[in-house]
Amino acid sequence: MGGVANYRQGYGTQPVLNADGSDYDIFNNPVPNPNPFVFVPNSQEIFWGVYTQASYHPFSYLKIVAGGQLNKAPGTPIDIVPRLALISNFSKNFGAKLMFRQAFRSPSISERFRKSRSAYGDPTLAPETITTIEAQIYREIPGKLLGTLTYFNSTGNRLIRRSRPSDSLLVIDGVSVAKYINEGSINTQGIEPEGKRQFANNLSLNVNASFFWEGENTTATVTGMPNLMAKAGLSYRLPRYGSLGIYHSYFGKGTDINAQQMVNPTPEAFHFLSANLRLNLASLFQFNGLYSVFLEVYARNLLNAQVHYPEYIRRNINSIPGRAGRAFYGTLRLSF
Q1: Residues contacting 244, CB < 8 A, separation 6+
Q2: For position 140, what pLDDT does the model report?
Q3: Looking at the predicted structure, is the pLDDT value of residue 47 above 90?
Q4: What is the pLDDT of residue 264?
Q5: Which residues pair with 208 in a beta bridge?
Q6: CB of 114 within 8 A of CB of 138?
Q7: How distant, in Å, are the alpha carbons of 108, 246, 254, 320 from that of 163?
Q8: Distance between CA 254 and CA 231 in Å, rounded?
Q9: Mean pLDDT within 57-75
Q10: With DSSP H G I counted as helix, E B as strand and the rest as coil, what are the percentages for the chain, rounded to 5?
Q11: Using one digit for the tens of pLDDT, what is the confidence trace for 192-202?
């Protein structure tokens, strides 16, 4: 059993100071901005939790793990999130898992007390929770093959999100302003097959695919989650000389957010290719001495894919840039 207590404090908008403590002079005007973009007033709060977990082996082939966490956030009643797992090994290399768990998140100080033209907080916000049921079956051939198949079902409740100004939930000086709200629930489900194949010549292959779909959705929140993601990685290793890995990922198109303005490229499915090379130069060129030299090169987005993600938080524009273009990183390391 364990427990944790957290203390957090917001300091609000403070005057900007120089290193010596004097006022920072911007354009000969040391007066702080009287109307800052984001304003979180001075605040402090304590939230705490107690958690416990125990395991039990009723049979040699079955393990039961049970636990839970008790949470107390400011302004809300005590909340308990349980966890339960059944783990069965039908044989040494064949088994299954069934898990039920919940997670808890209390609203942040900004979500509760923020005051700005972009969004207002709500001190009465309730914590949000997510409940997940997961079932997995696996099969292993030691040194050659490992395969798993996983099904999961997750439901988020009392989700904390920002309303759109067009919802007119909060009007300041005659202008509609977004505010943080609890709204409804959302359910996602998925199947994830995964496999790893080890070949005899220091070559290994990893593959993974994820198929997602949304269940009952009682909120305007959208996940932006693609229905299909697939990954494959091929790696080759020579213990004395180094290793080379090539990794390819495919991300399907995400959910349409029905944005108010189409100002950027429409988010589409994309391929993302990267590679990682590690060389032991001392062994490769047979250096003599009490030192080693390693060269590491990492290449990212080799296909130079132009990636845009749905802007699903505010939804006033259709997309934002998601990832950088083609890039190379190198490290030379000398060890004595």
Answers
A1: 235, 236, 237, 275, 276, 277, 278
A2: 92
A3: no
A4: 85
A5: 194, 231
A6: no
A7: 16, 42, 21, 19
A8: 17
A9: 89
A10: 5, 55, 40
A11: 999 999 998 89
293 beta partners: 334
Taking residues 298-318, what's their average pLDDT?
Answer: 85
Residue 329, number of CB atoms within 10 A of its CB: 10
- State the pLDDT at residue 6: 47
Conformational region of residue 168, where left means phi above 0, alpha means psi within -120 to 50, and beta covers everything else:
left
Strand partners, 199: none
Mean pLDDT of 216-223: 62
Helices (H), the chain: 109-113, 281-284
Q: Give the type of residue at 150.
A: T
> Where is 62: in which H helix or E strand?
strand 62-72
Contact 240, 294 (CB under 8 A): no
Amino acid making up residue 14: Q
80 is written with which tokens?
Answer: 């308990």
State the Cα–Cα distance between residues 324 and 248, nearest whole angstrom. 16
Average pLDDT of the residues of the chain? 83
pLDDT band at 17 (very low <50, low <70, confident <90, very high): low
Q: Is 256 helix (H, G, I), strand (E, B) or coil?
A: coil
**SS3 label, residue 166:** helix
- Pick the residue with more confidence: 169 or 134? 134
Is 270:307 a contact under the CB 8 Å cutoff?
yes
Tell me the one-letter amino acid at 320: I
Q: Which residues of 207-232 are buried (b: 16+ CB within 10 A; e: fewer)?
A: ebebbbeeeeeebebbbbbbeebbbe
Cα within 13 Å of Cα(74), Cβ side: 19
The one-letter amino acid code at 34 reads P
Q: pLDDT tens digits for 229-266?
A: 999 999 999 888 899 999 999 999 877 777 778 888 88
